Amino acid sequence: MKRVLVSAAVVCIVLVLSACGGKATPDPTAVAQAVAATLTALVPMATPTSTDTPISTSVPVSTALPSATFTPTATPSSPPGWKEYEDIIGLFTVMYPPDWYVEKMREGSVSFVLPKSGYVTVAIGKDPYIETVGMNNERVLNYLIAHLMEPFTPEFDLALDDKGIWKDRGYFIRFTLQKPRSHTVAHVLDITTPLGSDCCAIVMFFRKGKLNEITNKDTNTLGILLSTLRARHLQSVPVPPAPAIELLDWISGDV
Questions:
Q1: What DSSP assignment string belongs to 91-144?
Q2: In CA terms, which of 19, 58, 202, 244 is 20 to 30 Å from 219?
Q3: Going from the N-terminus, what domains does the chain have, and what CATH number goes with each?
Q4: How far apart are CA 171 and CA 132, in angstroms?
């Protein structure tokens, strides 16, 4: 636009000067002075006006506040009638069936007595050998077998029934204990789940009695229980070591 205005001004100046002087050639000095004076007058006209809208390349940003997408629930989901247990130092909460009753509470663990000669311990503990599932599964499983069975020897004969990965995020060990020259038999299922920071969640389930084996209903109950387990304050509260098994008197008692 500026170039068009300048060209038009120059043409007008030349025509005026030519008209004033007839057919004589215009004086170059006079033409230059006239053009300079005209450009000075035209410069403000070259400034973009408020009607010139620049093209924006930035991404539009909404000024509306986003709606909340997370709604905390009061308690984890569980079957009707289940109760909540809170660890005495606040390391975890867990839901448990109404026919279980709390038998022993310790820092970082709780034990329940169940109908039909059952016993369960739930704990949060430190154990640097429990690694994330998928890295060294066989090494962790072998460590758990030795660690879990050691307290029962030599008083009991032990038989490993099964081992493997629990729901892609933990480890399970199943074994049977039998006291020599006795009818005392106990079936054991341990589930250990890594939590990070060398911490793990442990659920150890016992059924006592030769014919009182661990059932699918039992494992389903443990699955629900684990789904409600909520570890808390692992970075701010000292986490005790994984608890030792102290059930020899209970196992050796009358069925």
A1: SEEEEE-TT-EEEEEETTEEEEEETTTEEEEEEEEE-TT-PPTTTSHHHHHHHH
A2: 244
A3: 2-46 (no CATH), 83-252 (3.40.1000.10)
A4: 10
DSSP of 168-237, one letter per residue? TTEEEEEEEEE-TTS--EEEEEEEEEEEETTEEEEEEEEEESTT-PPPHHHHHHHHHHHHH-EE--TTTS
Model pLDDT for residues 71-124, shown as the tens digit of each residue: 333 445 789 999 999 999 999 999 999 999 999 999 999 999 999 889 999 999
Q: Structure tokens of 45?
A: 């006209």
Instruction: Identify the pLDDT of residue 244.
Output: 66
Burial class (CB in 10 A: 0-12, 13-18, 19+), 242: buried
What letter would DSSP give residue 48?
P
Structural contact between residues 125 and 199, judged by C-beta atoms closer than 8 angstroms: yes
State whether residue 163 is helix, strand or coil.
strand
Residue type, 65: L
Beta carbons within 8 Å of 145's beta carbon, 6+ residues apart: 160, 163, 173, 175
> In the structure, what pLDDT confidence band is assigned to residue 168 with cuts at 50, 70 and 90?
very high
Tell me the pLDDT band of 183, cut-offs 50, 70 and 90. confident
* Percentage of residues of the chain with pLDDT beyond 70: 65
Global pTM reads 0.67
Given the structure tokens 């016993």, which residue do they identify? 119
